[in-house]
Structures are given as C-alpha cells and as structure tokens.
Amino acid sequence: MKKFITILCFFLFCIFSAHLAASDIVVSAGVSATTEKPFNPFGEWDNKSNQYSVRYEGQRFGFRYDQSKGGDDNDNAYITADILARPFNYVIMGGGVMYAKNRLRTVGKQKNFHAMIGLENPTLFGSFGAGAWFDHWSNGHIHQIVGWDGVPNPPRNVISGGLIKSF
Question: For position 86, which CATH number holds?
C-alpha cells in the first residue's frame, strides 16, 4: 500500500508540474513483438501476449497503467512514470521506471526500466488523435544478441496503436 501511495503522489506531481494545456489521455492496445530467434533485442522469443494501456502524457512527464493478457506475462499490471521528449513533429520518445504487480514475464524483476518511441498525431480526427508506439521494459541491461548473457530478466516489447484525446 505504501508503494501505491508513493506512486500516486508521483503521478499527481507529474500532472501538476506538466503543462496541463498540452496534456493528452491515451488509450491503446498492442501485442508483444514475437520472434522465433532467441536473444532478439526487439522481440520476445516464443511468446505472444496482448497489452492494454491507459496513460497521461504531459508536455515533459507521463504516467501509465498497462495490463498484460496471455503469454508468459498473463494478468500482470505495470505502473510506469516517464520523462518525455518531442524532438520532431509527431514523434514522441520516453524513458523512465516501472513497477509491476508480478515479476516481469514471471522470471524478471518487479522494478524495471521503460523506454518508448512513437508517432502521434493528436488532431488526426479533429478533437481526437491516433498514434503507434514501440514500448520496451527491461532492467536496463543491454542483452547479448547471441547466446545467454547470464541476466535472467527478459524484456517485454510491445507494438501498440491507440486513440489520443487532447485537453
């Protein structure tokens, strides 16, 4: 409960410190990037799961809740806080930390690093927008491409699309 209250306080800090005039609520769904090659840095070997997300994106800070269904991370939930950058029109990048209800993919850690890159157009449908994102959760370790690197914390990689409501 103490961790939840701490995360909630950080969420409120992000909301009030970000520029509220430039904030978005994003609802998205995605699927893990499945690969047949073990140790692929952008895929999940022999795994496929769906992920559903709700997130707040301020100008510089973001906060999100993700729910995983199916695969080796079934029924896991993540709370993630990110620092965001918008280097070009329609491009968003983020990095931060997450805390999961269960261990990531059953063998990883509950606290992990998060990185995200995506394309967003907040006015694509008038007052609503759309976007596509690639999300990566791991312990921050750069995994060896070929062979076992001794770090038993497999990454979660998700490709998703969703709707954006700007405020």
Answer: 2.40.160
CA distances to 59, 151, 166, 167 from 87, in Å: 12, 33, 19, 21
- In a 10 Å sphere around its CB, with 0-12 CB exposed, 13-18 middle and 19+ buried, how is residue 32 labelled? buried
In this prediction the pTM is 0.81
CA dihedral 83, 20, 66, 134 (to 10 degrees): -50
What's the total number of domains in the chain? 1
Q: What is the rounded distance in angstroms from the CA atom of residue 51 to the CA atom of residue 32?
A: 8
| pLDDT tens digits, one per residue of 65-122 | 999 999 888 999 999 999 999 999 999 999 999 989 998 888 778 888 899 999 999 9
